[in-house]
């Protein structure tokens, strides 16, 4: 029995419910379908060129004397010769329909830059380095602070302040820091942005000689070098950071005090509130164990103050990434460029 047959006896709602139909479907089938109107193609405008005239214009534009000229030049040349075929805009429209309107000059094409994806699971695996300006005593004078940072421990492994930004100075700092940290060939990756010193030939040759892999940020993407940028913000947002430095010695003295504090006293939020020195030199487990004893004693004394569970010292991150791969919905890793 159909819905239409049972509807007079049971009612539309009851019949549709029994047959598993919606009432909208029932009423739609009762209404006869209207025949679809035939869509006719629009008639050509009475002012438009006919097919023969269009082809004549294209043939003219394809002639050797006009093939390298703009339609406006062709239009003017034809007028000077006493001939009119169509307007310049019509010439452009016809050429565009044939796919013949485009930039013909050689244009600079930037190569596709690969997004750096760097992983550090311990100290002295990946370093990030950068240069920032410090304001000098008068306007338009600067001092340049070079900083090399270990991204796993956040330890500033090397720094210097100089009068200028120089590839030779950067090369010297990298070599001295490399030797001081006891790096061996094949152990280290150094990441930087695309500044002139970072991409200079002396630095590139030095890293190749030392067996160090170098990577660079994509142009105008500050997120590709986040650790150096964050460290510079910590420096410049210190309460005692001066607006200007009176001399090079003044800036060096301030940075010496700052990096001593940063490496040995600053409890960094991204490394479980440990100091960079503690993490860099493998002392984190001992400090965490001592913290856990303090927390356990506090829990034993006042367990009611810890509602959900006993307190646990913050764990140290097992891995630090620059641009970690994005996980897809299926759980596999995908790359985004």
Automatic annotation (TrEMBL):
GO biological process, one term: DNA integration
InterPro entries: Integrase_cat-core, RNaseH-like_sf, RNaseH_sf, Transpos_IS3, Transposase_IS3/IS150/IS904
Leader sequence segment: none
Annotated protein name in UniProt: Integrase catalytic region
Coiled-coil zones: none
Integrase catalytic domain boundaries: 119-284
Organism per entry: Desulfobacca acetoxidans (strain ATCC 700848 / DSM 11109 / ASRB2)
Pfam families: rve
GO MF annotations, alphabetized: nucleic acid binding
């Amino acid at each position: 029995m159909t819905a239409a047959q049972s509807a007079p006896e049971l009612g539309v709602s009851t019949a549709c419910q029994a047959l598993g139909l919606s009432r909208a479907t029932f009423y739609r089938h009762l209404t006869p379908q209207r025949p679809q109107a035939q869509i006719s193609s629009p008639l050509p405008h009475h002012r438009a060129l006919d097919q023969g005239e269009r082809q004549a214009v294209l043939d003219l534009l394809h002639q050797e004397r006009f093939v390298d000229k703009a339609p406006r030049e062709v239009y003017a040349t034809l007028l000077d010769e006493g001939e009119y075929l169509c307007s310049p805009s019509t010439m452009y429209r016809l050429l565009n329909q044939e796919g013949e309107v485009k930039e013909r000059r050689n244009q600079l094409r930037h190569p596709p830059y690969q997004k750096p994806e760097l992983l550090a699971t311990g100290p002295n695996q990946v370093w990030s380095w950068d240069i920032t300006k410090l304001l000098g005593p008068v306007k338009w004078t600067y001092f340049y602070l070079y900083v090399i940072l270990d991204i796993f421990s956040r330890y500033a492994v090397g720094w210097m302040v100089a009068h200028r930004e120089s590839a030779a100075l950067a090369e010297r700092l990298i070599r001295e820091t490399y030797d001081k940290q006891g790096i061996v060939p094949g152990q280290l990756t150094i990441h930087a942005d695309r500044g002139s010193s970072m991409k200079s030939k002396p630095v590139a040759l030095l890293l190749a000689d030392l067996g160090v892999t170098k990577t660079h940020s994509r142009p105008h993407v500050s997120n590709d070098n986040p650790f150096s940028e964050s460290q510079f913000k910590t420096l410049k947002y210190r309460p005692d950071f001066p607006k200007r430095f009176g001399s090079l010695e003044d800036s060096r003295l301030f940075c010496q005090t700052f990096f001593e504090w940063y490496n040995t006293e600053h409890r960094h939020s991204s490394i479980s509130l440990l100091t960079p020195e503690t993490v860099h030199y493998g002392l984190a487990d001992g400090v965490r164990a001592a913290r856990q004893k303090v927390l356990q004693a506090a829990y034993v004394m006042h367990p009611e103050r810890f509602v959900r569970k006993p307190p646990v010292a913050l764990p140290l991150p097992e891995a630090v990434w620059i641009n970690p791969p994005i996980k897809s919905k299926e759980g596999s890793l995908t790359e985004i460029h």
